[in-house]
Amino acid sequence: MNELEREKEILEEIKAWEHELQNDNRTDFQRTFSRWLDRKMDEIPDRMKKVFYEKVDASLFNLHSVIQNSFIQQDVKKQIILSARALNENIIEISDLHFLSVDQLHYLADLQTSKHRLYSFLQGGMTGTGGVLLIGADLPLQTILNLRSIQMISMCYGFEINNPYEMMTSLKVYHASLMPKHLQYSQWKELIGEIDSEDHMGYFYSGNEDLADVKSVEFFLKQIAKLSVLSLFKRKLVAGIPVVSMMVGATSNYHATRKITEFANKFYQYRLITETKQ
């Protein structure tokens, strides 16, 4: 199978995945929780919600910049380039990764995201031990791990993250991946609409920069609810170890990271094929 045929096949796989996103398979409990959350959020004054969302957005922007400029992320960038150079000796910088096939880039991205899924699993297991410090650090650590994984997926597909457009795009991918599955389709269409538009810029971002909203807050509330469950189960010990709470924490964090990285991988595959392979 030549490269063009393979790209068409991947686009068909993405279309099938898009179709799945349109199906609303929520349970009655999930629907009830969403309605309850909407009602509670409607009771909060608009001004207060606006201030809260602005604080969340500012925190994400700052955290993204810190991760991007960290020496750990710079080391990972070098590792990605070295791995890519083993496949094509002409690769010198991240943008050169576009010389590789989409399957080769998927391989590089999968190497990085598999590590992050493992880190998330281990971090969730440690949180499940019930330590106050570990429970308090769970949400910030999960945010860092998942933002970092999206940055690495972006680089693995040849998109540098050190300019305003790429930074905003990666943050919007993160925000969209947090959405309940039945709402991800509209976020997906908005993202691909931006990259498909003829007037989108390669350096500055000119679209809507607001991220946080009631539905992304739902994700964080679920994470807080998870921590409450862990606190309840930490007393159920097996040989002196809170096995149940550790498994709940590890499994929950693993699936959250897997969901986020799958969404990001689909997006950057689509973007690679539609933008750079034409």
Description:
It holds the Pfam family EcsC. InterPro entries: EcsC (IPR024787). This is EcsC family protein. The protein is mainly α. It has one domain. 76% of the residues lie in helices and 0% in strands.
Give me a quick take on this structure.
The protein is mainly α and 278 residues long.
**Structural class from helices and strands?**
mainly alpha
Order of helices and strands: HHHHHHHHHH
Write down the overall geometry: globular
Number of domains: 1
Count of β-strands: 0
**Percentage of β-strand residues:** under 5%
- The average pLDDT is 83
Structure keywords:
single chain; mainly alpha; 10 helices; globular; EcsC; EcsC family protein
Furnish the topology, listing elements before pairings.
Layout: H1 3-21, H2 28-43, H3 46-69, H4 71-85, H5 102-127, H6 132-156, H7 164-178, H8 181-196, H9 214-233, H10 243-276
